[in-house]
Amino acid sequence: MERSAFESARAVLDSVKAPDACKAAQTFVARTGRDAAFQLEACVHCGQCAEACHFYLVTGDPRFTPVYKLWPMRNAYRRERAPFASLKRLLGLAPPAPTAQELAEWSELLYDSCNLCGRCTLACPMGIDIAGLVRQAREGMSAAGFAPADLYDAAERALEAGSPMGVRWPALKRQIELQERETGLEIPVDAEGADYLLVLSSMEIIGYPEILGALARIFRQAGLSWTLPSAGFEATNVGVQIGSREVAAALLSRIVDAAERLKVKYVVSPECGHAYSALRWEGPNLLGRPYSFKVVQITELLDQLVREGRLRTRGKDARRLTFHDPCQIVRRGGVTRAPRQLMDSVSGNFVEMPASGAATFCCGGGGGVSAIHRAEKLRFAAFERKKRQVDATGAEALVTCCSNCRNVLEEAMEQYGMTLPVLGLTELIAQYLEPGERQP
Amino acid sequence: MTPMELLEFARGPALWASLAVLILGSVWRVAAIWRLGAAPDLSEPRSTRLIAGAMRSIFGRMLPRKEIGRGRLGALNGYLYHAGLAVIVFGYLPHLHFIERLTGLAWPPLPGPVVYFAVGITFVALFLALLERLMDPVRRLLSGFDDYFSWFVVILPCATGMIAINMSYPPGAAPAPPLDPLPLAIHLLSVELLFVWLPFGKLAHTFLVFASRGLTGAALERKGAAV
What we know:
The complex is a heterodimer. By secondary structure, chain A is mainly alpha-helical. Chain A is built from 21 helices and seven strands. Chain A starts with a helix and ends in a 9-residue tail after the last helix. Chain B has one domain: Fumarate Reductase Cytochrome B subunit (Up-down Bundle). Chain B is globular and about 70 Å long. The interface between A and B is large, with 64 and 57 residues.
């Protein structure tokens, strides 16, 4: 089963060596079902989505209007599948089929200048899920060779090595050993029958490995039965970002296999926005079956443990702290309250950004943009809107619960000469754990 | 064809034909989309109050979110012509006679000055909307034949209606033909053009908006996300 999923995913990547506009359009059209069609049909071209998109707001370039990013694929739908399409083709009134040149141009619009953050979806007066449609448009683009090379490379690495950053088990094992030495706690691996399976993002393993020690301390105090898997530990899913269902399903199947092999009750989605989206919301649909376990986002779990009294903190951070909402966890994922409850438990001076929560601006790196080298300048430009939000709070430190956001924020803040530190929420909680940890 | 014959044509075969196109075209458009089907969502829902989410989206999106784009003049202008058109169509006495003849439904009309004021507002707002579409880079980029033709078929009945407003009628009931039937015939034909175009272009948002808003609202509610 797994082998066929991986062969299918590799076949998709192999088939895109020669870009094919016809295939891109066909893929998009074939995947346009009832819900997407109602939304494609409902647009009145009011342009209000532009006001929601940071790429448009900072550049003033009308091409960055979210719904315009769908134009070639919308035309393909209108030409091939929309009501009256046959009649319009007969009368010569159907829009032209997208060309390879057009789609190559649109690669910038559908990838570099879209974080799939969904702020446009929230703003659309017609209720069109523009971010969802961009995600679907990427399926056509990626299936036909029009996605950015950096994302194809990341997908190759993820299929080959198990991680888009090339992180393999020995690298994680080394980090586990370091954190075990640091904390004096054992980090369980492949513990069959554990309640919770923790998966991680490569960014956490490479950039913020302290989170492992933090979680070991937290789970110890809460008395949680948990484990890491030696295979299927990577939570991120470049297949979702590039728009390849085959790649996404293949990568996801590693986690599902690990969860089923170890017979866990829950899989803990880590501090990573799109990993949560892939695992929690897209996963069962990509695999075509419900899970035998539940998926819980780490902040939801920590909030639950605090509310149940299993996780106790002492003292509060006196600095003025603010919180950055990762789009896929908050706006698109529905986990809004939990991080705020946690912030309140460890911060004595937590201040919300203006337009925080569902309407917040993306860090600029979501939706795979941070992995696209050619998009770097645009990403830093888009950060200007986030900067305004952060500056308005007068915060001394910025907290978030997505390691990719954290990395992107740090890079962008360096560009803008901002000096406030960016903290991970889980690590912040661990820092204020009540001493006298419970025995397992 | 005399003006009276034209009016009879507009009130008779043209009206029924345009209504048939309006209804059948709209049903066809919705049915053609519906038949595309939807795969069941296999992820575990955080909320099952999907109808509540759909309703919140349908009604909540009537107002822009305060954090995003509220106060943009173009958005405010949209309220003006939508409200103005509603007052004209559902508040003007001759239109109510027309609706009553077609459907048997009747309600009290709005005072004439209110309707005339709405006509003025609607005209100005529609021209501002066109101006914005032509001059604003975003709106201009998004606009095509459908946008401009739809604008035309909306404003045309307003213009022809204004010409027909002060028609003289012979003594008797209002439904009797006016002394000069030509303005009314042209007005009716312009309305019928609107009926014929509505199912095929963006004006179909009059009914598609409920599906689009509702589906997105239900999907976001399912995740427990802001609708």
